[in-house]
């Protein structure tokens, strides 16, 4: 199993949850207001007067065969609107209960 942490502009929220549903990635945890700044492009998401937008984050744990289809769809979404910001990170899950 793999854990996928997805960080994204809040504008993506519904699209990402719908994508998880379509790919049968049922379980996830969402943090609705996180701050951040991308490593390549896009504007900071600080929730301030100067940088008013905010990010959200979702972590899901999925079977290995679901990782690449999810990453491919997220990459497509990011390429459509690069300035919004969307990143995904994958970690091995050693154990779960």
UniProtKB/TrEMBL annotation:
Pfam families: P-II
Source domain of life: Bacteria
Swiss-Prot/TrEMBL GO biological process terms: regulation of nitrogen utilization
Alphabetized InterPro entries for the sequence: N-reg_PII, N-reg_PII-like_a/b, N-reg_PII/ATP_PRibTrfase_C
GO molecular function ontology, one term from the record: enzyme regulator activity
Protein name: Nitrogen regulatory protein P-II
Species of origin: Candidatus Paraprevotella stercoravium
């Amino acid at each position: 199993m793999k854990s996928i942490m997805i960080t994204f502009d809040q504008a993506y929220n519904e699209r990402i949850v719908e994508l998880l549903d379509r790919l049968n990635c049922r379980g996830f945890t969402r943090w609705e207001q996180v701050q951040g700044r991308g490593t390549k492009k896009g504007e900071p998401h600080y929730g301030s007067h100067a940088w008013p937008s905010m990010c959200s984050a979702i972590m899901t744990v999925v079977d290995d065969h679901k990782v690449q289809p999810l990453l491919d769809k997220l990459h497509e979404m990011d390429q459509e609107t690069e300035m919004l910001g969307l990143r995904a990170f994958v970690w091995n899950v050693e154990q779960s209960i």
